[in-house]
Amino acid sequence: MNTKLAKKFAVLPILLLSLMLVFGCGKEAEVLEFDPATVGAVASSAISVFQSVPPENYEAIQKFDEEDLTGVTDMLATRGLKISNDAFANGFNSYVSAVGEMGNFTSISEPTDITATATDITALLEITGTNDGPGGSPRTCTAEIILSKNLTVKNVAFNIDRTTGEKLANAGLNTLLGMGTTFSILILISIVIWALSFIPKILSGESKQKPQTESPVDKTIDQIISREEQEKEEKSDNDELIAVIAAAIAAYESEATGRAVSPDTFIVRSLKKH
Predict the structure, then answer these.
(1) Domain-by-domain residue ranges, the chain?
(2) Is 11 within 8 Å of 98 (Cβ atoms)?
(3) Taking the CA atoms of the chain, what radius of gyration do you get in angstroms?
(4) What is the DSSP letter of 214?
(5) Does the reported pTM lie above 0.85?
């Protein structure tokens, strides 16, 4: 029994090794075959097309619609350069941006590096401009041309070569702009929240200043109360006047008759004011 188990465990490493060999010897990924001279010629032709445009026409070409771009790429195809509409539009915009910083191109090298995948071929070319960089040397950039299997230009980009100081400065500027924008929005939100606290106070102030309209029922009640108070005052004044008149008459009768006469013996039936 032990001998059989030992044989089984001895076979396992051989099986694992066989599996590793099978999977390790898989077919390598295919890459496109290309002629470096042909790829270099196509890449240089794409750059030359952009260089042939006068600066006064830059803005007009950047406004081309799809129909205009198709007309341009069809004309270039008849002259041997196959390029897609997007590649022409994006490449031309990148070219204009590079020329604005580098100046006119003074030299364009042969492809310094050509790589291929199963679908694309990428060529890199070094370009020198007329403008000087931070160190006093001419500005340079790397043109990246991507071609398809049938050598149609799929994309063109001009990447400016920058010093470490420029890269750090750009990174710092981007960070500053991002943080500045964030803090500006936060400050604006804080101001809006602070201003919202005054809205209830403003609304309550308006409600206090708003004149209160008296209803007809309230007016009627006020008039009745006012009239009753007036009648009470008039009655009180009449009672005082009657008492005075009665006292005066009693005094006169007492003097005339020679005997005391009480004011209570007189009754005032009515009192008219003139």
Answers:
(1) 36-163, 220-265
(2) no
(3) 54
(4) P
(5) no
